[in-house]
Amino acid sequence: MKISDIIKKSTISSNLNIKSNLIFPLDINIDQIDINEIEGEFIYFEDNKKIIGNISKNLIAYLQNKKIHNFFPDIMDKIKEGIIAIDENGKIFYANKNYSKILGIPLYHIIGKYIQDIEKEASIIKVLSTHKEIFKKNNYIKSLNKYVDVKILPLFIKNEFKGAISIFNDITEITNLNKEVIRISSVAEEYNQKLELIKELKNSKIVGEDPKYLELITKALIVSKTDVTVLILGENGVGKDVLSNFIHNNSKRASKPFITLNCATIPESLIESELFGYEGGSFTGAKQKGKIGKFQLADQGTIFLDEIGDMSFAMQAKLLRTLETGEIEKIGNESNIKVDVRVIAATNQNLEKKIEEGSFREDLYYRLSIITLEIPPLRERNHDIILLINSYLNYYNKKYNKNLNISTKAYSALLEYNWPGNIRELKNCIEHAVILTNGDCIYLENLPKKFQNKALEDKFVTLEELLNKKEKEILLNSLISNNWNKEKVAKILGIGQRTLYRKIKKYEIKLP
Ligand SMILES: Nc1ncnc2c1ncn2[C@@H]1O[C@H](COP(=O)(O)OP(=O)(O)OP(=O)(O)O)[C@@H](O)[C@H]1O
C-alpha cells in the first residue's frame, strides 16, 4: 500500500523544524519505512520538496504488521469478478480463482502462459499496444459461449507501462434471462395480434358432426397427444388453421406458444429470418437488437407452417435440417441453437404433384407427412352446412345485437350452394346478411348476389326438377319450423311418416 493513497494532504508549516530522518517521499510503500529508526509520534511526507502531511507512527506500524499483501490473494479469490493480470509482453502473472472458474480453465494452465496463446481475440491484448483502458459491456466470448462485462486497465509503475489487468463479470445467466424476457414479450406481441382471432374462435368453437368430419377430429385428438409432425390438407377455408389450433390446444404443449407462419405471404428473401431470426447487425438493414425467429418463439410449443407448398426449394432444405436435428441456424450466429418445437404444416396444394414437377422436396414431404389429416370440403359435409349456418347466425346475431331468422328460400339457397370457399365463405356470407338485413328475417335478397343469380337460374330447369325443388323446400321449411319433429311434420303435410322418411332420404336432407 502506498502512503499517497491514505494520507490526508495539507501543507504543513516548515517552521516545525522536523528532523530529516522523519521525512519520507510521498510515493513510498508502507513496507519500505523502517519504523525502528523513528523517534517521534508522527512521520512526515513530502512531495516536490514540500511537506504535505503526516501519519502517526502507530498507524504505520499497525499496517506494516497486517502485511496487506499476505491477504491480497485471499481477498482477490473471494470477489465474484474474474481477474487476470499480464505483464507488458502478455505473459500472465496473476489470475484469481474466479477467473479460472468462469473460464473453466485450471490456474496451472494459465499462470506463466501468454494470453495470446490462450484467447487469441482477448481484448486485453489490445491494451499491450494502446496502453489505454477498455470498458466493454455484454462482451461475447466466442470460444466459451459466455457473455461478460469487462474492465481492462493498463498497469504503470513510475509512469512506465508494466502490463494490464482485466476484471470481468460473468453475465451469461443475466444475458440469457434477458433474451428469454425479450422472447416472451415477442410471443406476447404475436399473441396480441391474434387476440381478435382467438376471441372469435372461442366464441364460434369448432362446429361439425358429419361422420367424415368427426372421424377426422377423432384422429386429430389421438395425434395431439404425441409430438409427431402433422400435415393438414384441404381446400381454402376448410379450417386447416382451426384444426392445427385444436391439435395444439389438446396437446401437452397447450400452455406454451402456438406460432403461425404463412409461407405464402412472406417474401422469399425474408422467410429465413422470419423462421430462424438473426443476430444484431448480421446484414445490411438488420435491426440492431437482432430478431427472434418463429422457431425460437415457439420453443416448447407448436409452430404452424401454413401454405407450406409455397415455400421455396432452398428454404425447404433448411426446414428439413431443423426438423431432423431439432436445431436452428440463426443468421449471423455460428453455433446452432436447440429448439423443442412441434411442427404442423398445411397446404391446399397437391404436394405429390409438386414433387413430380420438381418444386417440392420428396424428403421433406415424407418428414412432414408422418400423419396426414385431410379436411373434407364443405360441399361434402351437407349436414354441417346447416349446423354452421345456425352457429354463425347465432354468433353474428350476438355480435351485431340482432335477433334474425332465415327465410326458407334463403336457407335452401345456402344449402344448395357449392361453397367453393368453404367455411370461410359461408361465415362471410352470413355476416354479410346479418349486417345488411333490417327487420327480423334474412330473405334471399339479403344474401350476396351469387345466391340470387342461382335463384334466377331456376327459370331454366325442367318441370320435374322444379317440382322436386319445391317439394324439398317445403319439406325443409316444415322440418326447420317444427324443430325437426318428423311426426308433427308428417301430420301437417298430410303424408305418412314412412313417406316423409323416403322423401328426406331422396332429397338427402341431413337431420340434426
Ligand atoms: N369446424 C369449424 N367450425 C366453425 N368454424 C370453422 C370451422 N373450421 C373453420 N372455421 C372457420 O372458417 C374460417 C376459415 O378457417 P381456417 O382459416 O382455419 O381455414 P384454412 O383452411 O386454414 O384457410 P386457408 O386455406 O385460407 O389457410 C375461419 O373463420 C374459421 O373460424
Q: What's this entry about, in short?
A:
InterPro entries: AAA+_ATPase, AAA_lid_NorR, Homeodomain-like_sf, HTH_Fis, P-loop_NTPase, PAS, PAS-like_dom_sf, PAS_fold. This protein has 512 residues and is an alpha/beta fold.
| CATH top-level class of the largest domain | Alpha Beta
- Biggest pleated-sheet summary: 5 strands, antiparallel
Strand order of the largest sheet: 5-4-8-7-6
CATH topology of the largest domain: Rossmann fold
Can you tell me the CATH architecture of the largest domain? 3-Layer(aba) Sandwich
Q: Looking at the chains present, what oligomeric state does this protein adopt?
A: single chain
Identify low-pLDDT runs. Answer: none
Fraction in beta strands: 15-25%
CATH superfamily of the largest domain: P-loop containing nucleotide triphosphate hydrolases
Query: Tally of extended strands?
Result: 19
How many domains, in number, for the residues? 4
Number of helices: 21
Question: What number is the mean pLDDT?
Answer: 85
Helix amount:
40-55%
Q: Span between N and C termini?
A: 94 Å
Protein name: Sigma 54-interacting transcriptional regulator
Pfam family, one: Sigma54_activat
Keywords: ATP-binding, Nucleotide-binding, Transcription, Transcription regulation
Domain PAS: 68-113
